[in-house]
Amino acid sequence: MFRVSLILVELVVSIDRHFRIFDTIIFAEILMKSISLCNPSRSLGFLTPAMSFLLMAFLGLPLFAAEKPNILFIFADDQCYETIGALGHTDIDTPNLDKLANQGTVFTHTYNMGGWHGAICVASRTMINTGRFLWRARELDSDLSQEVKEERMWSQLMHTAGYETFFTGKWHVNADTGAIFDHVSNVRPGMPGPIFYPEAYGRPIEGQPDPWSPTDPKYEGFWAGGEHWSEVVANNAENFMEVSSRSDKPFFMYLAFNAPHDPRQAPQEYLDRYPLDRIEVPENFAAEYPYMAGTGAAEIRDEVLAPFPRTEYAVKVHRREYYALITHMDDQIGRILDALEKSGKADNTYIFFTADHGLAVGHHGFIGKQNMYEHSLRPPLMVMGPKIPKGKKIDTPVYLQDVMATSLELASIAQPDYVEFKSLMPLIEGKRDKQYDYIYGAYEPDSQRAFISGDYKMIFYPRIDTYRLYNLDTDPMEMDDLANKSKYKGKMAELKSAFVWFQGRMADPLK
Description:
Elements: H1 2-15, H2 23-38, H3 49-59, E1 70-76, H4 95-103, E2 105-107, E3 110-111, E4 114-115, H5 120-130, H6 134-141, H7 145-149, H8 154-160, E5 164-170, H9 177-180, E6 183-188, H10 229-244, E7 251-256, H11 268-271, H12 312-343, E8 349-355, H13 374-377, E9 381-384, E10 392-394, E11 398-399, H14 402-410, H15 425-428, E12 439-443, E13 448-453, E14 456-461, E15 466-471, H16 489-506
Helix pairs in contact: 1-2, 2-3, 5-6, 10-12
C-alpha cells in the first residue's frame, strides 16, 4: 500500500505541473506503473516514450498541452477614441500606441455602457472586473465581498488558471486588490487629489492670467509623492516584468494609468509640443449644449473645469493639457513594451490597450464624460499578440469590457455563465461579423439613455422627455439631429419600441 500511495502522489504532482511538453510521457509512464500494481504478473518495464505517446492518443488525451499566453492589460482613464495618432482623427503624438495599432488589430467602435453616477469609471471598472452588464454590476458595487469569496473576479479567474497576477495604478472598484491579486503596487484612488483645488476650475478666461499651472507640484495631483504617477506605473511594470522573466508561470498584468484624467498635469516639455496654434477645436464644438438642463450633468465637477459658456480658447487650452498628458503616458507605455521585449516573453504575450470611457473636452459643449455622445462613450481599443492580425481595423461595435472575456478564451478558461460580455476572438478570426444586436448606454437611473441599432443612434433625456436621433454612418460627429424630422418618424417609433423591450434585458431601472 505504501508503494501505491507514493505512485499516486507522483501522479498528482505530474498532473499539477504547468503543462511542460513531456508531461504527457511522464503521465503515461506513471499511469502504466499504477496499472502494473493491480496486475503484478504483467511487466510494463518495456514502455518507451513512443509507446507513451501511442497510449495517450489511444486514451484521447492531448499529446501536447499548449503553453498559456501572458496577458498584458493596459488601462487608461478618460481617453477618447480619437486620441491615437495612427488613427488619423487628431494631430497628437502617440508613437507607442501607434505601434500597437499598426502591429495589432484596432476596434474602431468600442463602447462603455455608461455609469450610475458621475464617476463613470466606477461602473466601467466594476463591469470589466465582474463581467456583468451595467445595472447588474451596480447591484454588486456596494459589496463585492461575495464575488471575492467565490473567486469570481477577473484576476481570480486568471489566478485559478495558473496565472501570476499583478496590479498597479488606478483601481476604483469596491474590492481589496490585495485579496484578488498575487502582487500589488501603488494602488491609486479615482483621481489624483486633492479633488478640489479652486485654481483648476472655471478656467482659463482669455485675456486674464491663468491661475492654474499643470507643471507646479504645489497642486499635488499627479505630482504627489515626488514622481509623476504615470511614471510610477511604468516603474512598477518594469520591476514585475523583470521578476516574471525568471518564472515559468504565465502572467496577467493589470496596469491602470490615472492619465489622462484631470488634473491634466504633464512635464513642461510635453506641453511645449502642443502650442495653441497646433490645437484644433472640435468640429462639433458648441458654446452651450441646448439640453444641458436635462442631462443631470450641468453642475458636475467635470463640467465646471471650464467656464460657461464654452469658448474656443478655453477648449484649446484644455485639449493642449489633455494631449500633453496622453503623450507623456504614451512614453511610459513605450517603457513597458521595451521591458516586455527584454523579458523574453513578448512572443507569447497578448497586449490589450483601452480606457474606461472617452471624454468630450469641448465636443457638443461638454467637457466631461457624463453624456451619451460618441466622444464620451467610446475609448480606443487595440489588441496585439501571436494570433492577432497586423494593421487590421474592425468597425463592428463592441464593448471595452469584452477584453475580459477575450482574455479568458486566450487563457483556455471556460467562460462562466455570469460573464455577460463576449470574446473578441471570433471577430478577429473572421468567424462572425456582429457582436451585439444593440449598443446600450446610460447615465444615472433616470438622466440619460443611448440606444444604437445599425447606423442609427437615439439619445433620450427622461427628465425633460426629449429625444435626439443621429445617423452615425452619414453623421459621425452627431451634428444633424433627425428626431423631429417627419421623414424619420417611423425610425423613431421603431427605435423607441426596441428600446423599451431591450430595457428588460438590461435590467434598466428607468420606468
